[in-house]
Amino acid sequence: MDSETLCFTPASEIAEQIRTKRLSPVEYMHAVLSRVEKYEPRVNAFVCLAADRAMDAAKRAEATLMRDARIGRLHGVPVTIKDLAITKDLPTQHGSKIFADHQPAEDTPLVTRLQGEGAIVLGKTTTPEFGWTGVSHSPLTGITHNPWKHGYNAGASSAGAGAAAAAGFGPLHQGSDGAGSIRMPSHFCGVFGLKPSFGRVPAYPVAVGDFTSHNGPMTRTVADGALMLEVMSGPDPLDFTSLEAGPANYVNRLHEGIKGKRIAFSPDLGHARVDPDVAELVRKAVARFSDLGATVEEVPTPWASAGPELIRFFWAAHMTRLARYLEKWQSEMDPGLVACINAAQNYSVSQYQEARERKMAYVAAIHRWFEDWDFLLTPSVSVAAFPAELLMPKHWPQHHWDWVMWAEFSYPFNMSWNPAASIPCGFNAAGLPVGLQIVGRRFDDLGVLQAAAAFEQAQPWANRHPKLD
Questions:
Q1: Domains identified in the chain and CATH numbers
Q2: What angle do CA 254, 256, 259 make, to 5 degrees?
Q3: Residues with catalytic annotation?
């Protein structure tokens, strides 16, 4: 198998080849690191690449394999961790000069679980400053480039993970999603990403954004996403919001399909602007689900109209936790983040509590609506990738911080805690990927994975790779 093919082989296949001693962990790590070395200067997916550490770990993995010792499900498989997740052996800098070279004293639980199953941390992937925006640049690392078009947005706070997945920098990438930051980079970069049900993957430290941030997998295949989610999931005492139940047997039940499922489709949630090329590809993808045996109907989503006001209030309100840095660091911070912080400086506690009351009613309305539907299909994002130095596409209304205008489909399910995935559903005339969002009922992560797997089988995407040369 040539090096490029090896780098785009799914983790499930790589792990099996390593387990059966048909592939050396050292040989595989060398192939991945060689690809990173060749293309990372063009992509800029890593804020910290731990190449020597990863190769040493691959050598230890090979020695363990040769001793016929017990190995985990991801033995010798590289994984990347986002720069917002704490790691004791690598810096966690939050995409900000404020935290340059910051070194935590412990790992977040998902890192411990991945390493416990034999995965090797390749490095930390880039994020916008404190994960605040949907575009892939930060004061600390500059632009992270979309592998499908240099200089273009790789999308949101898990941009480095999405770009690394698309570029073939290993098969498994951890993302987090507070308003779409797993699904948006997956859409822009043409990979699979799942924001699971809230609490499925424990988060530590627990975020203060009113319990909207979810950890999840970003991969090139649904099976790899299912495998990674199985490993990361389960309760943890450090996260009091984590779900008591462990993960289902996601990998072995992907084949069960969606025959007989009731699926709703909304092209715009009743209020979102969507570019025509995105809308057309999504509508064609939705038709596939009827062919797969599901009943699909285009239906209204009356709960959705309350969303835009809520997200703009809460997004700015939660960024005010960073106001303490402005006096010293404002000139070194992302100007859009500074504007977002300042937009909410005069919010009162009573305003916040009143907004939370409206939010809870909004969330209840979403769950009542889902009583009639197994899944909801929408675009993942309203636009294809655009130049990464911009906050808004040039043909959209401009604003000094409101990037949410083109991302109206994702945040509702951060508030409601439903599982939601973005799956590649085609390419526009410029050759840029577009994603379809699949949303399931809360706790039905397995159902979302099964729906994604059925679509993947009907319309495969993982065999198409960006040309980085």
A1: 3-458 (3.90.1300.10)
A2: 130
A3: 82, 157, 181
